[in-house]
Amino acid sequence: MSETAETTTQQSPRPRLKTQFEQQVVPRLMERFGLKNPLAAPRLAKVVLNMGVGEAVADPNALNDAVETLREITGQQPVVTRARGSVAGFRLRQGMPVGCKVTLRRKRMYEFLDRLISIVLPRVRDFRGLSPDAFDGSGNYSLGLEEVAVFPELDLDKLKNIFGLDITIVTTAQTDQEGFELLSGLGVPFRQ
Q: 15-53+101-185: CATH homologous superfamily?
């Protein structure tokens, strides 16, 4: 086999969080909930990042800045979201661009979540842990960051606008307790 054939067959390393999930979290979840099959254990389905840009109504460049910021954070091209209906008080018409979002799955999802847990959340000012009450009743968790400046990927000198970011972690858990056990097993820092 030639040297070039060997390099093309090599795959990039597995995300650290995925390995931790398979080796430590799944056995713990199986024991905790009395599951017999490892595939029945709750797992991560996707991570959705949403950035609302209200200034986009008055300044179209604000939306471009938000798209570029989200692209740098995730390494994936964001989708522009549009208004579903018209709101006269906000000078908003149906179909106007109002934000952007990215859905991360598989390897990118694990890598982003690992960076969020180990690098980004500790950089948030006065961070004392995430609220365990932000589950939606089906095991999915949502959190918001007031500003994206805590992401180390961003060059703060190039940021014209500081945006907020909504992050939703979607799991296959059936209950909030299962979702809580899954996320805390992965290292999500919940408040006591």
A: Ribosomal protein L5 (3.30.1440.10)
